[in-house]
Fold this protein.
Amino acid sequence: MASEFTRRVRNIIAAIPEGSVATYGQIAALAGNNRAARQVAWILHSSSTAHKLPWHRVIGSGGKISLPRQKGYEEQRSLLVLEGVCFNSRDRIDMNRFMWNPEHIDDVE
DNA sequence: TTACTGACCTTTT
DNA sequence: AAAAAGGCCAGTA
């Protein structure tokens, strides 16, 4: 349960500023395992509501939303747009401008 | 303990 | 270009 990795992931996601987005792989890398991108998604599922994490700021690689349209694709896209994130014709985010560039993460513990 | 799942990522067809 | 397969890790049952 909630290993250091998981705890760090939640911290990272909570530290994502509005108007910026981060990819699972990037978060996983910041957490210490760039191969645990899948786990990041699962952590989101598990702790998004519980920890009030901005899950909508977490996207897949290339700026594409991972959620199916039936599940929450529209919701996430709307939230991102409200925060100022622009989408391309292909429903993709401009990683050039919106990908979160973490300078340093302050570990709560 | 093992087995299954998961909002992924990368490479290959 | 799009689609499929493989590989990786952590959490839950």
Q: What stands out?
A: The beta strands of chain A are 22-23, 58-59. Residues 23-25, 28, 34-42, 44-45, 48, 55, 58-61, 65-68, 71-73, 76 of chain A lie near DNA strand B (CB under 10 Å from a C1').
